[in-house]
Design goal:
It is a single chain. This protein has helices at about 1-15, 45-60, 90-95, 100; strands at about 20-25, 35-40, 65-70, 75-80, 85-90, 110. It is about 35% helix and about 25% strand. The protein has 4 helices and 6 strands. Strands 3-4-5-2-1-6 form a 6-stranded mixed sheet. The model has no long low-confidence stretch (mean pLDDT about 90). The two termini are about 15 Å apart. The protein is of the alpha+beta class.
Length: about 110
Amino acid sequence: MTSTLLQAAYKAIDDKHGEDIVVLNMRGISLLADYFIIAHGNSDRQVQAIARELQEVAVKEGHEIRRVEGFDGARWILVDLGDVVAHIFHKDERAYYNLERLWGDAPQLDVSEA
């Protein structure tokens, strides 16, 4: 089920033109989730559209949305889907927080062709 959720989440982000999508395998590294998806949009509206699409796809496929944080500010939206947590940044914020470096010990996965 997690791989289905991961693929659906990745596709939802990609469908709204989320940029530089990175998937980190957090198993054994973090208790928060099995996978983190990190991506960014180039405007507040795009960031919100990506997060909205992600939520709609998750609900449509029967997955629970545990929480959403930061939607109104649209600078860093966190969508918690349980085993998968998506971090949707505004382009300007992504470099500042640099989650890829923070979680540098987590292996990156290529799910774009899965």
